[in-house]
Amino acid sequence: MEKYVALLRGINVSGHKMIKMDALRKMMEGLGFKNVKSYIQSGNVVFESKLRSDKDLEKQIAEQIRIVFGFEVPVLVKGVEELKETVKNNPFVNKRKEDSSKLHITFLSEEAEKTCLARIREVKSEPDEFMLSGKSLYLFCPNGYGNTKLNNNFFESKLKVRATTRNWKTINELINIAEKS
């Protein structure tokens, strides 16, 4: 069995698309996933699966959410080893030693096309900064993520891919949960 993290976008925000975590865990267990654990109310689930395709897992989870809860939710699935590698390669930590409370990672559903990448490189977003590596956008937001224009909607519209963002603490906690289970 492989360990994965499912990142659901846009649930339990301002009273919309409400999903209780115990109900989400039960739904995931109903799909045959093992050692299902959730972290905070914003849709972060660590689990084990025999399936080895992130895309197949994403489709399966998203479809089951639609059936059980009655609405669509974008889902990104990352292998725990991939998450560890993403954390290890954060340039804002490794090269600049920035304050970790100001760091986020936006996960992309796939690598963006080069023509789309040019659109985001032109954007002036000071004091916020981002660095792209594959399917991960490393963000440094000194005034907080709530005050940046470098949000999921911005990257989705410019890069034409799905995106979801987590703060540095959440990503590291998800890895810790996976390693303990």
Summed up:
Helices cover 38% and strands 25% of the residues. The protein is an alpha+beta fold. The protein folds into two domains: 2-82, Alpha-Beta Plaits (2-Layer Sandwich); 85-168, Alpha-Beta Plaits.
Structure in words:
The protein is 38% helix and 25% strand. It contains 7 helices and 8 strands; from the N terminus they run βαββαβααβαββαβα. The chain has helices spanning 21-30, 54-69, 80-88, 91-94, 114-121, 152-159, 168-180, and strands spanning 2-8, 34-39, 44-49, 75-79, 103-108, 129-133, 136-140, 163-167. The strands form 2 sheets. The chain has a 4-stranded antiparallel β-sheet with strand order 2-3-1-4, sandwiched between helices. A 4-stranded antiparallel β-sheet has the order 6-7-5-8. A hairpin with a 4-residue loop joins β2 and β3. The chain starts with a strand and ends with a helix.
Relevant terms:
181 residues; Alpha-Beta Plaits; alpha+beta; globular; 8 strands
